[in-house]
Amino acid sequence: MVKEIERKFLVSGAQWRDLVEADIRIRQFYLAAAPDRSVRVRISEGASAKLTLKFGSKARERDEFEYPIPLAEAEQMLAFAIGRVIEKTRHHVRHRGLLYEVDVFGGMLSGLVVAELETPQDVQDEMLPDWLGREVTGEHRFYNASLALEGIPEIAA
Which residues are part of the catalytic machinery? Predict the structure, then answer.
């Protein structure tokens, strides 16, 4: 088990694009989702898949269990998905030594760009990059399970 400690932000600028180190095409869907837990399948680059279980209702910290699964089984599980399938490209961007994952959503969530920062330390606001917009940590409507079930939040549309 891993403790997932993350902050989420809307992205307000495009300067991050010049800093991209890697991109990963992701397709993910949920098999179960509740306010304090979720079961997700993620397919990366159409080549590998993981099953992820997350537990906890704290805004910044959750317990996470993740397991590789055969790609063919992940594709079969798609028949049991709840809500919509999320399509996004995840961009790895470094700023002041910290890795930000910038997700550019496609499909029904097109137009939404969210950055995540996973770090056990508390990063002061003045250390954050200028291209980050409003922090949405703890706003469940911006979490992927909510996006799959409810769509793009009106404030971000």
Answer: 30
